[in-house]
Design brief:
Elements (H helix, E strand, L loop, with lengths): L4 E3 L4 E2 L2 H9 L2 H16 L5 H4 L7 H19 L10 E5 L5 H10 L2 E5 L3 H12 L10 E6 L13 E7 L7 H12 L2 E13 L4 E4 L4 E4 L1 H11 L2 E7 L9 E8 L23
Parallel strand pairs: 1-8, 3-4, 3-6, 4-5, 6-7
Antiparallel strand pairs: 1-2, 7-11, 8-9, 10-11
Helix pairs in contact: 7-8
Protein name: Alpha N-terminal protein methyltransferase 1
Keywords: Methyltransferase, S-adenosyl-L-methionine, Transferase
GO biological process, one term: methylation
Length: 276
């Protein structure tokens, strides 16, 4: 990525390569990058306000925006979604299960959660086990994986949707590409990714506190190309406080856009960020 960027202390970088060489240029630095990132979240309270960085009040707007986007995608990609199709989702960076509880479990028969911070995942297990659903045998949280994205490989063709929200900024560019290339094999035919993330106006912004990077729209699109993914649809999140980064949702597919699939039969961590 040739566009320059900055860090949360105001330091300027000529390009992303310069920044990454400094941050993770050798194996020990890369280990420290991930260790410090998880370490930051290990010190955060397992609550909606905690995982949303003190902005718990944006939860409703976030879920509403995500639901509108997801409903459109399901209606376009699956002709019989929500009827006789058995749909399975993976919630990446699941945190305390906020997205699963408020959104995914209402649209998918099974949801697996992937989260590297153990006390968040335990809170998710408790939150979802205590949740009363009209059809608990049909809609349920199934597997709880305590593992970081860069180490996770999904089972082949398990998921209709892999939802990745407010966590991909912790991955280096190389691990970003590696994760999506591995995760593609976890999608069922016709399945897709939803990536929802903070967006920098240009280039990137490195957060020195939690060891993450906020990328621009162009930066993301360049990485999508390296992943071999097609941009099916995108949408801006509305209703966020002005002091926060803009938030964008991307639907990504492994096939060319405009292909509609019929769902198979039954037989078959997270937060907005302040602009710095």
């Amino acid at each position: 990525m040739e566009v320059g960027g900055s860090d949360s202390d105001g330091r300027e970088f000529k390009n992303a390569d310069e920044m990454w060489r400094e941050q993770v240029g050798d194996p020990s630095k890369k280990t420290d990058w991930y260790h410090q990132g998880v370490g930051y979240w290990q010190g955060v309270e397992a609550s909606v306000d905690g995982v949303l960085g003190g902005y718990g009040h944006v939860n409703e707007a976030d879920v509403h925006g995500s639901e509108a986007f997801l409903k459109t995608l399901l209606s376009e990609r699956y002709l019989n979604a929500g009827t006789d199709g058995h749909l399975v989702a993976l919630d990446c960076g699941a945190g305390i299960g906020r997205v699963t509880k408020n959104l995914l479990i209402r649209y998918f028969n099974e949801v697996d959660l992937l989260e590297p911070v153990s006390h968040f995942l335990e809170a998710a297990r408790e939150n979802l086990s205590s949740e009363s659903h009209m059809s608990p045998d049909i809609h349920k949280a199934n597997n709880f994986f305590c593992m970081p994205l860069q180490e996770f490989t999904p089972d082949a063709e398990r998921y209709d949707v892999i939802w990745v929200q407010w966590c991909i900024g912790h991955l280096t560019d190389d691990d970003f590409v590696s994760f999506f290339k591995r995760a593609k094999a976890g999608l069922k035919p016709g399945g897709f990714f939803v990536l929802k993330e903070n967006i920098a106006k240009t280039g990137f912004v490195l957060d020195n506190e939690d060891r993450s990077i906020t990328r621009s729209d162009l930066y993301f699109k360049e990485l999508f190309r390296h992943c071999g993914l097609h941009l099916y649809k995108s949408k801006d999140q509305r209703g966020m406080p002005e002091e926060l980064f803009a938030v964008k949702m991307y639907a990504l597919t492994t096939d060319s856009p405009k292909k509609v699939y019929k769902a198979r039969s039954k037989g078959q961590a997270n937060r907005p960020r302040i602009v710095k």
